[in-house]
Write a structure and sequence with these properties.
377 residues, 3-stranded antiparallel sheet, 14 helices
Length: 377
Protein backbone atom coordinates (compact mmCIF):
# COMPACT_ATOMS: atom_id res chain seq x y z
CA UNK A 1 0.00 0.00 0.00
CA UNK A 2 1.26 3.46 -0.78
CA UNK A 3 2.48 5.67 2.01
CA UNK A 4 0.00 8.07 3.55
CA UNK A 5 1.31 11.12 5.37
CA UNK A 6 -1.55 12.25 7.51
CA UNK A 7 -3.29 13.99 10.44
CA UNK A 8 -6.09 16.61 10.97
CA UNK A 9 -8.74 18.55 13.23
CA UNK A 10 -10.82 21.60 12.94
CA UNK A 11 -9.92 25.22 12.59
CA UNK A 12 -10.78 27.93 10.19
CA UNK A 13 -9.68 28.24 6.62
CA UNK A 14 -10.83 31.66 5.53
CA UNK A 15 -14.27 31.63 7.05
CA UNK A 16 -14.85 27.89 6.62
CA UNK A 17 -14.53 25.44 9.48
CA UNK A 18 -11.61 23.49 8.07
CA UNK A 19 -9.50 20.85 9.73
CA UNK A 20 -6.51 21.72 11.90
CA UNK A 21 -4.46 19.42 14.09
CA UNK A 22 -4.60 19.64 17.89
CA UNK A 23 -2.50 16.70 19.11
CA UNK A 24 -1.11 13.58 17.50
CA UNK A 25 -1.91 10.50 19.54
CA UNK A 26 -2.85 7.14 18.09
CA UNK A 27 -3.08 3.43 18.62
CA UNK A 28 -1.76 0.24 17.14
CA UNK A 29 -3.54 -1.73 14.46
CA UNK A 30 -4.87 -5.24 14.50
CA UNK A 31 -5.31 -5.56 10.75
CA UNK A 32 -5.13 -3.74 7.40
CA UNK A 33 -6.83 -0.35 7.69
CA UNK A 34 -8.33 -0.42 4.22
CA UNK A 35 -9.94 -3.87 4.60
CA UNK A 36 -13.25 -2.75 6.10
CA UNK A 37 -15.27 0.47 6.54
CA UNK A 38 -13.76 3.04 8.84
CA UNK A 39 -17.24 4.04 9.97
CA UNK A 40 -20.90 3.67 9.05
CA UNK A 41 -23.65 6.26 9.37
CA UNK A 42 -27.10 4.63 9.25
CA UNK A 43 -25.55 2.03 6.97
CA UNK A 44 -23.62 4.50 4.78
CA UNK A 45 -19.98 3.40 4.70
CA UNK A 46 -17.03 5.79 5.15
CA UNK A 47 -13.92 4.23 3.65
CA UNK A 48 -10.26 4.38 4.59
CA UNK A 49 -9.54 5.95 1.18
CA UNK A 50 -11.95 8.83 1.87
CA UNK A 51 -10.28 9.49 5.22
CA UNK A 52 -6.71 9.41 3.90
CA UNK A 53 -7.65 11.59 0.91
CA UNK A 54 -9.15 14.16 3.26
CA UNK A 55 -6.14 14.14 5.58
CA UNK A 56 -3.69 14.36 2.68
CA UNK A 57 -5.64 17.37 1.42
CA UNK A 58 -5.20 18.97 4.84
CA UNK A 59 -1.45 18.50 4.53
CA UNK A 60 -1.50 20.22 1.13
CA UNK A 61 -3.46 23.15 2.59
CA UNK A 62 -1.18 23.40 5.62
CA UNK A 63 1.91 23.43 3.39
CA UNK A 64 0.45 26.20 1.22
CA UNK A 65 -0.58 28.21 4.29
CA UNK A 66 2.88 27.90 5.78
CA UNK A 67 4.49 28.98 2.52
CA UNK A 68 2.25 32.05 2.37
CA UNK A 69 2.98 32.85 6.02
CA UNK A 70 6.72 32.76 5.37
CA UNK A 71 6.41 35.04 2.34
CA UNK A 72 4.20 37.50 4.21
CA UNK A 73 6.74 37.83 7.05
CA UNK A 74 4.79 36.17 9.86
CA UNK A 75 6.47 35.97 13.26
CA UNK A 76 8.90 33.19 14.16
CA UNK A 77 6.43 31.82 16.70
CA UNK A 78 3.67 31.56 14.09
CA UNK A 79 6.00 29.79 11.68
CA UNK A 80 7.18 27.38 14.38
CA UNK A 81 3.59 26.45 15.18
CA UNK A 82 2.93 25.90 11.49
CA UNK A 83 5.97 23.65 11.13
CA UNK A 84 4.98 21.77 14.28
CA UNK A 85 1.48 21.20 12.96
CA UNK A 86 2.74 20.07 9.57
CA UNK A 87 5.20 17.64 11.16
CA UNK A 88 2.37 16.11 13.16
CA UNK A 89 0.18 15.84 10.04
CA UNK A 90 2.86 13.84 8.29
CA UNK A 91 2.96 11.08 10.89
CA UNK A 92 6.01 9.18 12.05
CA UNK A 93 6.83 6.66 9.38
CA UNK A 94 6.04 4.79 6.20
CA UNK A 95 2.57 3.23 5.89
CA UNK A 96 1.15 5.01 8.94
CA UNK A 97 -1.65 7.43 9.61
CA UNK A 98 -2.20 9.69 12.62
CA UNK A 99 -5.32 8.49 14.39
CA UNK A 100 -6.04 11.93 15.84
CA UNK A 101 -6.02 13.29 12.30
CA UNK A 102 -8.07 10.37 11.05
CA UNK A 103 -10.63 10.87 13.84
CA UNK A 104 -11.12 14.50 12.89
CA UNK A 105 -11.45 13.65 9.19
CA UNK A 106 -14.04 10.98 10.03
CA UNK A 107 -15.93 13.53 12.12
CA UNK A 108 -16.15 15.84 9.11
CA UNK A 109 -17.48 13.04 6.90
CA UNK A 110 -20.02 12.07 9.56
CA UNK A 111 -21.07 15.72 9.88
CA UNK A 112 -21.89 15.84 6.18
CA UNK A 113 -24.01 12.70 6.42
CA UNK A 114 -25.89 13.80 9.55
CA UNK A 115 -26.45 17.36 8.27
CA UNK A 116 -27.70 15.99 4.97
CA UNK A 117 -30.21 13.73 6.71
CA UNK A 118 -31.39 16.54 8.99
CA UNK A 119 -31.86 18.91 6.05
CA UNK A 120 -33.76 16.29 4.07
CA UNK A 121 -36.03 15.62 7.05
CA UNK A 122 -36.69 19.36 7.33
CA UNK A 123 -37.71 19.42 3.67
CA UNK A 124 -34.78 21.52 2.50
CA UNK A 125 -32.03 21.12 -0.04
CA UNK A 126 -28.86 22.81 -1.18
CA UNK A 127 -28.24 23.95 -4.72
CA UNK A 128 -25.17 23.94 -6.93
CA UNK A 129 -25.46 27.74 -6.93
CA UNK A 130 -25.02 27.72 -3.14
CA UNK A 131 -21.94 25.51 -3.43
CA UNK A 132 -20.54 27.71 -6.18
CA UNK A 133 -21.08 30.84 -4.07
CA UNK A 134 -19.19 29.34 -1.13
CA UNK A 135 -16.37 28.14 -3.38
CA UNK A 136 -16.06 31.59 -4.97
CA UNK A 137 -15.89 33.27 -1.57
CA UNK A 138 -13.29 30.77 -0.36
CA UNK A 139 -11.15 31.37 -3.45
CA UNK A 140 -11.29 35.15 -2.92
CA UNK A 141 -10.23 34.85 0.70
CA UNK A 142 -7.41 32.43 -0.10
CA UNK A 143 -6.18 34.74 -2.82
CA UNK A 144 -6.23 37.71 -0.46
CA UNK A 145 -3.96 35.73 1.89
CA UNK A 146 -1.73 34.65 -1.03
CA UNK A 147 -2.53 30.99 -0.45
CA UNK A 148 -2.41 29.12 -3.74
CA UNK A 149 -5.18 26.58 -4.21
CA UNK A 150 -3.98 23.25 -5.58
CA UNK A 151 -5.76 20.17 -6.84
CA UNK A 152 -4.41 18.28 -3.83
CA UNK A 153 -6.58 20.41 -1.50
CA UNK A 154 -9.81 19.56 -3.34
CA UNK A 155 -11.13 16.76 -1.04
CA UNK A 156 -10.81 19.07 1.98
CA UNK A 157 -12.34 22.07 0.22
CA UNK A 158 -15.19 20.01 -1.20
CA UNK A 159 -16.04 18.40 2.16
CA UNK A 160 -16.02 21.69 4.02
CA UNK A 161 -18.03 23.53 1.37
CA UNK A 162 -20.62 20.76 1.56
CA UNK A 163 -20.73 20.94 5.35
CA UNK A 164 -21.01 24.73 5.28
CA UNK A 165 -23.70 24.68 2.58
CA UNK A 166 -25.73 22.10 4.48
CA UNK A 167 -25.50 24.11 7.71
CA UNK A 168 -26.59 27.36 6.02
CA UNK A 169 -29.45 25.64 4.20
CA UNK A 170 -30.65 24.00 7.40
CA UNK A 171 -30.56 27.32 9.23
CA UNK A 172 -32.54 29.02 6.48
CA UNK A 173 -35.07 26.19 6.32
CA UNK A 174 -35.63 25.72 10.02
CA UNK A 175 -35.54 29.27 11.29
CA UNK A 176 -35.94 31.95 8.63
CA UNK A 177 -36.16 35.32 10.34
CA UNK A 178 -37.26 38.65 8.90
CA UNK A 179 -35.23 40.42 11.59
CA UNK A 180 -32.15 38.43 10.67
CA UNK A 181 -32.56 39.22 6.99
CA UNK A 182 -32.83 42.90 7.87
CA UNK A 183 -29.60 42.62 9.87
CA UNK A 184 -27.83 41.04 6.91
CA UNK A 185 -29.18 43.74 4.60
CA UNK A 186 -27.84 46.44 6.93
CA UNK A 187 -24.43 44.75 7.02
CA UNK A 188 -24.45 44.56 3.23
CA UNK A 189 -25.06 48.30 2.92
CA UNK A 190 -22.36 49.05 5.50
CA UNK A 191 -19.80 46.87 3.71
CA UNK A 192 -20.42 47.87 0.11
CA UNK A 193 -16.95 49.39 -0.19
CA UNK A 194 -15.23 46.22 1.05
CA UNK A 195 -17.47 43.99 -1.05
CA UNK A 196 -16.79 45.91 -4.27
CA UNK A 197 -14.72 44.21 -6.93
CA UNK A 198 -12.37 45.34 -9.68
CA UNK A 199 -12.69 43.83 -13.15
CA UNK A 200 -9.23 43.47 -14.65
CA UNK A 201 -7.12 42.29 -17.55
CA UNK A 202 -3.93 40.60 -16.44
CA UNK A 203 -0.41 39.85 -17.61
CA UNK A 204 1.72 37.45 -15.55
CA UNK A 205 5.45 36.97 -16.16
CA UNK A 206 8.14 34.90 -14.50
CA UNK A 207 10.55 37.76 -13.78
CA UNK A 208 10.64 41.52 -13.34
CA UNK A 209 12.51 42.22 -16.58
CA UNK A 210 9.86 40.45 -18.66
CA UNK A 211 7.13 42.25 -16.74
CA UNK A 212 8.72 45.64 -17.36
CA UNK A 213 9.07 44.86 -21.07
CA UNK A 214 5.37 43.90 -21.22
CA UNK A 215 4.42 47.03 -19.29
CA UNK A 216 6.39 49.23 -21.71
CA UNK A 217 4.64 47.62 -24.69
CA UNK A 218 1.23 48.36 -23.20
CA UNK A 219 2.19 51.92 -22.27
CA UNK A 220 3.48 52.28 -25.83
CA UNK A 221 0.02 51.59 -27.22
CA UNK A 222 -0.28 47.83 -27.61
CA UNK A 223 -3.48 46.22 -26.40
CA UNK A 224 -3.02 44.45 -23.07
CA UNK A 225 -4.99 41.48 -24.36
CA UNK A 226 -2.56 40.99 -27.23
CA UNK A 227 0.42 41.32 -24.90
CA UNK A 228 -1.12 38.84 -22.44
CA UNK A 229 -1.75 36.32 -25.22
CA UNK A 230 1.88 36.76 -26.32
CA UNK A 231 3.83 36.60 -23.06
CA UNK A 232 1.63 35.80 -20.05
CA UNK A 233 2.49 32.59 -18.21
CA UNK A 234 -1.05 32.37 -16.78
CA UNK A 235 -2.62 30.11 -19.39
CA UNK A 236 -6.24 30.76 -18.39
CA UNK A 237 -6.19 34.56 -18.61
CA UNK A 238 -3.80 34.51 -21.61
CA UNK A 239 -6.30 32.38 -23.54
CA UNK A 240 -8.99 34.96 -22.69
CA UNK A 241 -6.89 37.89 -23.99
CA UNK A 242 -5.88 38.76 -20.44
CA UNK A 243 -9.41 38.83 -19.02
CA UNK A 244 -9.24 37.71 -15.37
CA UNK A 245 -12.82 38.62 -14.48
CA UNK A 246 -13.73 40.60 -11.38
CA UNK A 247 -11.78 40.08 -8.16
CA UNK A 248 -11.97 41.43 -4.64
CA UNK A 249 -10.56 44.94 -4.33
CA UNK A 250 -8.63 43.82 -1.24
CA UNK A 251 -6.91 41.06 -3.19
CA UNK A 252 -5.67 43.58 -5.77
CA UNK A 253 -4.57 45.95 -3.00
CA UNK A 254 -2.51 43.19 -1.38
CA UNK A 255 -0.37 42.99 -4.54
CA UNK A 256 -0.28 46.58 -5.80
CA UNK A 257 -0.79 48.49 -2.55
CA UNK A 258 -3.91 50.06 -1.07
CA UNK A 259 -2.92 53.61 -2.03
CA UNK A 260 -2.44 52.73 -5.70
CA UNK A 261 -5.68 50.74 -5.87
CA UNK A 262 -7.74 53.40 -4.07
CA UNK A 263 -6.46 56.07 -6.48
CA UNK A 264 -6.90 53.96 -9.61
CA UNK A 265 -9.67 54.59 -12.12
CA UNK A 266 -11.16 52.49 -14.90
CA UNK A 267 -8.56 52.32 -17.67
CA UNK A 268 -5.57 52.70 -15.36
CA UNK A 269 -2.61 50.31 -15.56
CA UNK A 270 -1.01 48.98 -12.36
CA UNK A 271 2.33 47.23 -11.98
CA UNK A 272 4.59 45.51 -12.45
CA UNK A 273 4.36 44.07 -8.93
CA UNK A 274 5.61 40.91 -7.25
CA UNK A 275 2.66 38.56 -6.82
CA UNK A 276 4.02 35.67 -4.76
CA UNK A 277 6.99 34.88 -7.00
CA UNK A 278 5.58 35.98 -10.37
CA UNK A 279 5.18 39.54 -11.64
CA UNK A 280 1.79 41.01 -12.41
CA UNK A 281 0.41 43.85 -14.50
CA UNK A 282 -3.29 44.67 -14.43
CA UNK A 283 -5.50 47.05 -16.32
CA UNK A 284 -8.71 48.02 -14.57
CA UNK A 285 -11.55 47.54 -17.03
CA UNK A 286 -14.48 48.13 -14.71
CA UNK A 287 -15.93 47.78 -11.24
CA UNK A 288 -18.61 45.54 -9.84
CA UNK A 289 -20.61 45.53 -6.64
CA UNK A 290 -21.98 42.06 -5.83
CA UNK A 291 -25.69 41.89 -5.19
CA UNK A 292 -27.04 41.13 -1.73
CA UNK A 293 -27.90 37.61 -2.92
CA UNK A 294 -24.31 37.05 -4.07
CA UNK A 295 -22.94 38.36 -0.75
CA UNK A 296 -25.42 36.76 1.62
CA UNK A 297 -23.42 33.63 2.43
CA UNK A 298 -20.33 35.66 3.26
CA UNK A 299 -22.36 38.00 5.50
CA UNK A 300 -24.09 35.05 7.18
CA UNK A 301 -20.69 33.69 8.20
CA UNK A 302 -19.84 37.04 9.81
CA UNK A 303 -23.18 37.48 11.60
CA UNK A 304 -24.50 34.29 13.21
CA UNK A 305 -28.26 33.93 13.37
CA UNK A 306 -29.49 33.83 16.95
CA UNK A 307 -32.01 31.25 15.76
CA UNK A 308 -29.11 28.90 15.08
CA UNK A 309 -29.67 27.57 18.59
CA UNK A 310 -32.79 25.91 17.15
CA UNK A 311 -30.62 24.27 14.51
CA UNK A 312 -28.22 23.11 17.22
CA UNK A 313 -31.09 21.40 19.02
CA UNK A 314 -32.16 19.69 15.80
CA UNK A 315 -28.62 18.50 15.17
CA UNK A 316 -28.24 17.25 18.74
CA UNK A 317 -31.35 15.12 18.22
CA UNK A 318 -30.08 13.98 14.83
CA UNK A 319 -26.73 12.86 16.25
CA UNK A 320 -28.45 11.02 19.08
CA UNK A 321 -30.83 9.27 16.66
CA UNK A 322 -28.21 8.36 14.04
CA UNK A 323 -26.66 4.90 14.14
CA UNK A 324 -22.92 5.59 13.95
CA UNK A 325 -20.33 2.84 14.25
CA UNK A 326 -16.56 3.40 14.27
CA UNK A 327 -13.75 0.94 13.66
CA UNK A 328 -12.18 0.74 17.13
CA UNK A 329 -8.71 1.33 15.69
CA UNK A 330 -9.83 4.87 14.80
CA UNK A 331 -11.59 5.71 18.04
CA UNK A 332 -15.09 5.88 19.47
CA UNK A 333 -18.16 7.94 18.66
CA UNK A 334 -19.34 10.61 21.15
CA UNK A 335 -22.95 11.23 20.11
CA UNK A 336 -23.44 14.06 22.62
CA UNK A 337 -20.57 16.09 21.19
CA UNK A 338 -20.97 14.81 17.63
CA UNK A 339 -17.31 13.87 17.30
CA UNK A 340 -14.98 10.91 16.96
CA UNK A 341 -12.69 10.51 19.96
CA UNK A 342 -9.33 9.05 18.87
CA UNK A 343 -7.80 6.12 20.74
CA UNK A 344 -5.90 7.17 23.86
CA UNK A 345 -2.44 5.63 23.94
CA UNK A 346 0.33 7.92 25.26
CA UNK A 347 3.02 5.63 23.82
CA UNK A 348 1.76 5.61 20.25
CA UNK A 349 1.23 8.19 17.55
CA UNK A 350 0.31 6.25 14.44
CA UNK A 351 -1.54 3.20 13.30
CA UNK A 352 -0.12 1.01 10.56
CA UNK A 353 -1.74 0.66 7.14
CA UNK A 354 0.21 -2.50 6.24
CA UNK A 355 -0.97 -6.02 6.84
CA UNK A 356 0.95 -7.68 9.71
CA UNK A 357 2.55 -11.00 8.74
CA UNK A 358 0.26 -12.92 11.13
CA UNK A 359 -2.87 -10.92 10.42
CA UNK A 360 -4.41 -12.97 7.65
CA UNK A 361 -7.67 -13.14 9.56
CA UNK A 362 -7.48 -9.61 10.98
CA UNK A 363 -7.04 -10.94 14.52
CA UNK A 364 -3.30 -10.60 14.94
CA UNK A 365 -1.88 -8.82 17.98
CA UNK A 366 -1.14 -5.15 17.58
CA UNK A 367 2.40 -4.15 16.55
CA UNK A 368 4.67 -2.41 19.03
CA UNK A 369 3.74 1.26 19.54
CA UNK A 370 5.77 3.95 17.77
CA UNK A 371 7.66 6.65 19.67
CA UNK A 372 5.50 9.68 20.55
CA UNK A 373 5.63 12.89 18.54
CA UNK A 374 4.71 16.40 19.50
CA UNK A 375 1.22 17.65 18.70
CA UNK A 376 0.22 20.73 16.75
CA UNK A 377 -2.30 23.45 17.44
Amino acid sequence: MERRHTSTPRACLIGLALLVLTTATACGSSGPLGSRPVATVDGHEITHAEVTDLVDAQIAYTEASLKAAKKSGQSVDVLKEGEKTLAAFRGTGTDTISTTGAAQAITTLIDVEVLGRALKKAGGEITDAKRKSLRTELKKQLTSQKIIISKAMEPLIKAEIERQALGLALTEKVAPSAQYEAKLQAAYQAQLAQLSQLCVKLVVTADQASAQAAFDRIRGGEDIGAVAADVSIDATSAAAAGDAGCVARGGVANVFGAAAVNAAKVGDLLGPADGDGSFLIVKITGTKVPTFAESRDQLAQQIPDVSSTDVSKILAKAYAATDVTIDARYGTWDAKKGTVVPPVDPLATTTTTTVPATAATGNAPAPAPAPPTSGGS
